[in-house]
Amino acid sequence: MTVLVAILSRLGKALLTLLAIAVLNFFLLHAAPGDPAVVLAGEAGAADEQMIAQLRERFGLDQPLYVQLGKYVAGIVQLDLGYSFRQGAPVSQLIAERLPATLLLTLTAFVISLVFGIALGVAAAARVGRASDSLLTTLALIFYATPLYWAALMAVLVFSVWLGWLPGFGYETVGADFTGLARVLDIARHLVLPALTLGLFFMAVYMRMTRASMLEVSQLDFVKTARAKGLSGAAIRRRHILRNAILPVVTLAGLQAGQLVGGAVLTETVFAWPGIGRLMFESLAARDYNTILGVFIVSAAMVILFNIVTDIVYRIVDPRIGARA
Question: What's the pTM?
Fold first, then answer.
């Protein structure tokens, strides 16, 4: 099976998966307590039965659940995620405005966690049994066990409030009106804390897995043969051990890349980062069903996309997979 056919097959399965996720999320969300019409009427200061009935009729909430589901699925097929009755704008527009910030945060955190996790794992495996190996392993355990929200709050407290090195909140400096390179650097400074905080947990996972995988591969026969040929330790680690040890790390990274989107909800809320995670948090409080469902669909699509990209990267790293497919 060629790579193109494999990708097309994956895309077909992805569309069916997205449809199933949309239906499941629809029923789960409507099973939750709370009525959007009551929330809107309360905010308008006129929470009487007539006002609530008018709002329910206006937004289609008075129709049977299966009718609402049919309209919602039909909208998704047409790439229409509905209308946000809370914010008075199409859901696709709201998500399009927030999605770049989330992609910037999650992709930066993913690259940081993967690059530093693999690098530290290689360093620990090269120094197994030494003090530096114990130090790196201990730090990885601490990062792994630290709750994300606590790490985010401590990062703001230490690096923003106490030391004043980095901004603790927002996407860019409000009112600064930077342009060009100055704006890019300003956004980068605001990105440091949320990206590092979000990537710490996954960096610890990749480091421990890289270390364990390298130690396992280093005991295989082909590595012993390379040592017998007189190759240097660095060459053996780079050309023989790392290339084989990195395969399970790539697989795990692809599966966990989607979890960064879930972690972004807490991170964006703590750091006031204007992404879709924060949009979902705000929509939950407002009972904005359409926006919540839209964010769920886009998040699920991102997870599936990450998995497809992982499959492609896996085939590139290990061409034998494509030959066996």
Answer: 0.77
What are φ and ψ of residue 133, in 5° steps? -65, -45
Rg (CA), the chain: 24
> pLDDT tens digits, residue range 269-308?
888 888 888 888 888 777 777 888 888 888 888 877 777 7
Three-state SS at 84? strand
Check: CB of residue 8 under 8 Å from CB of residue 279.
no
Compute how many other C-beta atoms are within 10 angstroms of the C-beta atom of residue 145. Answer: 9
Choose among 307, 311, 208, 201: nearest CA to 264. Answer: 201
Q: Say if residues 304 and 21 touch (Cβ distance below 8 Å).
A: no
What residue type is assigned to position 135 of the chain?
L
Residues 6+ apart with CB under 8 A from 262: 299
Answer whether 311's CB lies under 8 Å from 6's CB: yes
Contact between 280 and 295 under an 8 Å Cβ cutoff? The reply is yes
